[in-house]
């Protein structure tokens, strides 16, 4: 039995919820052109963080300059630190260390506290 779940609407709803009301982050610039959209700025941040690419490689796909790309990722990172910093970007306490060392012993990954790759 086929159930039509309106997948196109499912694609459009998040966009409308998060970007459509105020899609442009800034009004018009001095040249009368619209500023960057929130979608462009978030996409730039995700691509730079995910692929480890520099701001000058973003221009072709996202249509955003290097300086704007760097500003976007800095703004994104500041927001993440502001929201999650106190919980996730702190030094581990004694309970955390005991728990992490027990997990590393079970998995055979001794020394994981010194490895960034194993911190998750």
UniProtKB/TrEMBL annotation:
It comes from the Eukaryota. InterPro entries: Harbinger_derived_prot. This is Nuclease HARBI1. It comes from Lithospermum erythrorhizon.
């Amino acid at each position: 039995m086929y159930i039509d779940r309106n997948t196109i609407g499912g694609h459009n709803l998040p966009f409308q919820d998060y970007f459509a009301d105020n899609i442009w982050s800034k009004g018009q610039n001095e040249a009368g052109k619209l500023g960057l959209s929130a979608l462009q700025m978030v996409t730039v941040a995700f691509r730079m963080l995910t692929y480890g690419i520099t701001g000058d490689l973003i221009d072709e796909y996202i249509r955003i300059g290097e300086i704007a790309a760097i500003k976007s990722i800095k703004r994104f990172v500041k927001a993440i630190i502001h929201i999650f910093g106190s919980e996730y970007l702190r030094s581990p306490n004694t309970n955390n260390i005991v728990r992490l060392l027990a997990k590393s012993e079970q998995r055979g990954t001794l020394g994981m506290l010194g490895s960034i790759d194993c911190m998750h």
